[in-house]
Amino acid sequence: MEPAQTLPLSPGGGAVEGADDGSAPAPLARALGEGPVILDGAMGTELDARGVPTAQELWSALALVTAPRAVAAVHDSYLRAGARVLTTNSYQAALPALMRSGLSEPEARGAIASSARIALRAAARSRRERPDRVVLVAGSLGPYGAYLADGSEYTGAYALHAPDFEAVHVPRIEALAGEGIRLFAVETQPRLDEAQWIVRQVGRIAPGAECWVSFQTGDDGERLADGTPLAEAGAWADAEPGVAAVGVNCVAPGAVMPALGVLGGVTAKPLVAYPNSGDIYHPSTKTWTAAAPDQRFTAHARQWARAGARLIGGCCRTTPADTAVLARMFGLPTAAVGPEPRC
After folding, report:
1. Is 211 part of any known ligand binding site?
2. Cofactors per UniProt (predicted)?
């Protein structure tokens, strides 16, 4: 494969601030230094609620092609609820998968790029309503296992030398960076070596960009899904200049405190926590039991903040209502945005 292209970053692209000139902390680092920052929540859950089907290989990414207005509406709903960081709907938007769905390569790259444009426009609408509020947009970079759509994002049971490994990751970073994204969420990572590889590619393709890395762990919160000690991952993140924050996501709420304890012992960087809702899935019936109020992830967020979490949000089966709970919890007002856009 040819070397990845280094792309210029548009000033103010991934954040409401201007370009970083090196004299001040970058936008995410600055925001995290000022107190807890609320991240958005699930995209697929909200698309399902709007009647947009996600039960297929591309999951929520197909909506970039079939229902972009619904994607925009989800972003808007999280901003209204009080989120200050949006993640692009690109977690499972991999070039090979999009092309298998019938798109040409230019169309597939365009679909990935559209995830950035949709989120950036939502942030701009919010900014027009409340110019005093910082809204950041992070390009979501899921693991190779998400592209495989076989559950291996929760095990890490795949090889980094797979023939299409780079084709999954590099075009997505290029497309997002090409739209001006300068903050990346390297998320739901079950393997340390893959997270390290992705962070290197971000640094090469989008020099100066920030990222956070969040790992997928077992229920004990002490090891990555592939068995790597979380302490090892945290120590790497602590020494990696391109990583602004590190934590866990797409885990059970009960795994968060142990994970934060491990990470807090090896890094002074801000920590990240955005677990699943706490709802219980029953594979035999393919149904869910909603978590009791004291078991829902929001019930534990204050404790996570005391343990060092500065970027706090939700993952699977979380909603804007949860985001509003978090915003009120930390004294962060909600924001109104304009009417649903035409995309």
Report:
1. no
2. Zn(2+)
